[in-house]
Amino acid sequence: MVLGILTAIAACPAIIGTTEAVRQGQKQNAKEKHRGVKTNLFVNCSTATRFGREVNGCEVVLSEGKLYLSMPSAEFPDGRPEDHPFAGYFLPYPDQNWGRAGEGMVSTISDDPPQLNWIYIDKDTHEVKYGDRLTSEPHAVGPWDVTKVDRRVTFEGWEGFMAVRYGPKEWALYFDRDDDGLKDIIGEEMSTMEVVLVRRERKQGKPAPPDNEDDQGRKSGG
After folding, report:
1. Which range has the worst mean pLDDT, 2-11, 120-129, 151-160?
2. What ranges does the record give for the region Disordered, renumbered to this chain (predicted)?
3. Are 84 and 97 in contact (CB under 8 A)?
4. What single-letter DSSP state applies at residue 34?
5. What's the farthest any 2 CA atoms get from each other in the chain?
6. What is the b/e burial string over 93-103, where b = at least 16 CB atoms within 10 angstroms of the residue's CB?
7. For labelling alongside 134, which of 9, 120, 165, 168 has CA 20 to 30 A away?
8. Rounded (to 5) percent helix, strand, coil in the chain
9. DSSP H or E segment with residue 117
10. DSSP-derived secondary structure for 159-220
């Protein structure tokens, strides 16, 4: 009896350690679950200027190989019809292992048919673009990650995103890899704004009823 009690006492630290490890694993899994959830992207800008107010809260969209900010205009009050809202998540990039630094990032480029492309930073122009593996591979494809608290998007471990104005109501997304305000990348006549990228979970629509429920409904109704 005494031996049994001593054995149980000796085993307690191991049991407690195992339980704590399981709890920590569950917490980590819950934290990481968001990485595979398809989200939309929006930009926030804290600068209280005319252009700052113009870009703040805009949704990120994909069009013609690049990422832009969606803005209503007199011609397109609901945004340009060719724009596709960013709808993506984190995914390991083939033959790349950044460890805890992050992963690759993908987005749908169309709803029908559903198709994914990689999001990357053009190594020459610093534009944020999208493309298949063959297109993206020569450029900077990651690591993409999020900040610990607010889960804002980061690239290569920091937030260097900028919006560049091409014209009225036309802003493209860039990443300032050299941390110099893109001075050697864009012309002096182009306006720039520092922005942060915020992920928002997509709105869940009402699911379609299973086929057997439809059959039962028809049978009971007639």
Report:
1. 2-11
2. 199-222
3. no
4. G
5. 86
6. beeeebeeebb
7. 165
8. 25, 35, 40
9. strand 114-121
10. --EEEEEEETTEEEEEE-TTSSTTTTTS-TTS-EEE-EEEEEEPPPPPPPPPHHHHHHHHHH
Q: Which helix (H) or strand (E) holds 90?
A: strand 88-91
In the numeric block, which tokens belong to residue 112? 């029908």
Give mean pLDDT, residues 37-43.
95
Q: Per-residue pLDDT tens for 49-85?
A: 899 999 999 999 999 999 999 987 666 666 677 899 9
Q: Is the pLDDT of residue 172 over 80?
A: yes
Write down the pLDDT at residue 82.
81
User: Distances from the Cα of 195 to the Cαs of 12, 43, 163, in angstroms?
Assistant: 51, 6, 7
Q: Which of 157, 151, 152, 197 is nearest to 174 (CA)?
A: 197
Domains of the chain: 34-201 (2.80.10)
- Can you give the pTM of this predicted structure? 0.79
